[in-house]
């Protein structure tokens, strides 16, 4: 940017070329962009007769106005004989990992899909990381420390350990952008921990959700149809649509278009964070229209006092149905391979197996499950979600469910 010309918020947002961009604020402030495109605020300031540089944080977490305000405060401290750089270093040493986790969660709260997701985040860190590195200043944490957290559970609880690694990496990355630490991220996988720990795919045993045997679908549907209750209806709808439990439980009336014949799930409620349309068959529409409404509740399948059904509601129904069938001398409702009682999420696997055996188009089946099967470019160029083709497939699926 031209010398003597102040930076603007628009320029700071859009500039990408690596280099230094000075702000004419008389505080020695400039924006530095590294080769990776990351942006940092730096202040050149004279402290006790020596010119020094102080990091003020990364953009966009620290905006132009925030950087100017901090630079002005540092300037005042130096003028009065203080040392803002020494103060910052002292604060950095006192910032331990446990404290940074709290600050990270406060800053990133809006990004969590649900309160449950946030609790899961905190639980893994509290259980495995905090006892080992929670007391350590984030500046001093290195690869050895991260390995000491992960190694005890890497082979026995590989999926949990892999998620934990990613969460530690994000916390430390946030700390770096906020000038609480410097250097490479010791929790990074590629070219780092990948050289120390075995690949998750080599040590993890994939655990599938127990799925209802295809031969039991008709018997189970008849059992469901003989029962009543909001959780029962939600489970029926989950089976018909092959949707996730959370998507069903969070379904609101304004998401359903009876005239167009589809249910639109907003991106915020989807695992892939992308809007998804579900074609409605006549059976699905009839089920939805028969449901009672509760004034003041937006939910289609509402729970106690009009709130959302709990995440255990559908699982409880399937468990009770399984136990009741066993009590009558039946085989129960189990996974054909493991023999474990089937769970709601396993209905999606039952659908996928059926679609494969019926020769349904691979992409249509994956679209029905809201899976990402194409590259980003292919998805961007696709102009349709094949709603009508999927509707025909779901009609065939419901006939199979009912054994019609």
TrEMBL record:
- Core-binding (CB) domain sequence ranges: 95-176
The record's listing under InterPro entries reads:
CB, DNA_brk_join_enz, Integrase-like_cat_sf, Integrase_catalytic, Integrase_DNA-bd_sf, Integrase_DNA_bind_dom, Integrase_recombinase_N, Phage_int_M
Q: Which CDD domains match?
A: INT_P4_C
Q: Which UniProt keywords apply?
A: DNA integration, DNA recombination, DNA-binding
| Residue ranges of domain Tyr recombinase in the record | 196-394
Task: Give a yes or no for keyword DNA-binding in this entry.
Answer: yes
Task: Extract the Gene3D superfamilies matched here.
Answer: 1.10.150.130, Integrase, DNA-binding domain (3.30.160.390), Intergrase catalytic core (1.10.443.10)
Q: Which Pfam families match?
A: Arm-DNA-bind_3, Phage_int_M, Phage_integrase
Task: Drop me one GO molecular function for this one.
Answer: DNA binding
User: Which biological process annotations from GO are given for this protein?
Assistant: DNA integration; DNA recombination
- For the keyword DNA-binding, the answer is yes
Question: Which domain of life does this protein belong to?
Answer: Bacteria
**What PROSITE patterns does the record tag this protein with?**
CB, TYR_RECOMBINASE
Family label:
Belongs to the 'phage' integrase family.
**What is this protein called in UniProt?**
Integrase
Per the UniProt record, the source organism is: Ruegeria intermedia
């Amino acid at each position: 940017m031209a010398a003597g010309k102040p930076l603007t918020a628009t320029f700071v947002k859009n500039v990408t070329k690596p280099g230094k961009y000075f702000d004419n604020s008389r505080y020695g402030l400039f924006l530095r962009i590294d080769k990776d495109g990351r942006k940092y605020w730096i202040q050149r300031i004279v402290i006790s007769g020596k010119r020094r540089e102080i990091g003020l944080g990364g953009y966009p977490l620290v905006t132009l106005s925030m950087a100017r305000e901090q630079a002005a405060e540092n300037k005042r401290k130096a003028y009065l004989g203080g040392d803002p750089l020494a103060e910052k270093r002292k604060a950095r040493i006192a910032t331990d990992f446990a404290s940074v986790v709290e600050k990270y969660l406060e800053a990133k709260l809006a990004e969590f899909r649900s309160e449950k997701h946030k609790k899961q985040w905190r639980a893994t860190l509290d259980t495995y990381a905090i006892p080992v590195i929670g007391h350590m200043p984030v500046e001093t944490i290195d690869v050895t420390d991260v390995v000491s957290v992960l190694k005890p559970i890497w082979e026995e609880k590989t999926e949990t350990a892999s998620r934990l690694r990613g969460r530690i990496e994000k916390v430390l990355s946030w700390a770096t952008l906020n000038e609480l630490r410097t250097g490479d991220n010791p929790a990074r996988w590629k070219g780092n921990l990948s050289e120390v720990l075995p690949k998750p795919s080599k040590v993890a045993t994939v655990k599938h959700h127990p799925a209802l045997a295809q031969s039991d679908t008709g018997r189970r549907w008849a059992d469901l149809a003989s029962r009543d209750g909001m959780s029962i209806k939600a489970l029926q709808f989950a089976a018909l649509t092959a949707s996730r439990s959370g998507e069903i439980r969070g379904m609101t009336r304004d998401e359903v278009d009876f005239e167009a014949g589809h249910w639109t799930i907003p991106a915020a409620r989807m695992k892939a964070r992308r809007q998804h349309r579900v074609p409605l068959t006549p059976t699905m529409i009839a089920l939805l229209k028969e449901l009672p409404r509760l004034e003041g509740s937006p939910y289609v399948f509402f729970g106690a006092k009009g709130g959302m059904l709990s995440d255990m509601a559908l699982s409880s129904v399937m468990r009770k149905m399984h136990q009741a069938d066993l009590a009558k001398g039946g085989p129960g409702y189990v996974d054909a391979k493991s023999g474990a009682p089937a769970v709601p999420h396993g209905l999606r696997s039952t659908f996928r197996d059926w679609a494969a055996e019926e020769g349904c188009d691979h992409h249509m089946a994956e679209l029905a499950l809201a899976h990402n099967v194409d590259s980003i470019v292919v998805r961007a160029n696709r102009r349709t979600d094949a709603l009508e083709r999927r509707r025909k497939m779901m009609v065939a699926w419901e006939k199979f469910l009912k054994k019609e």
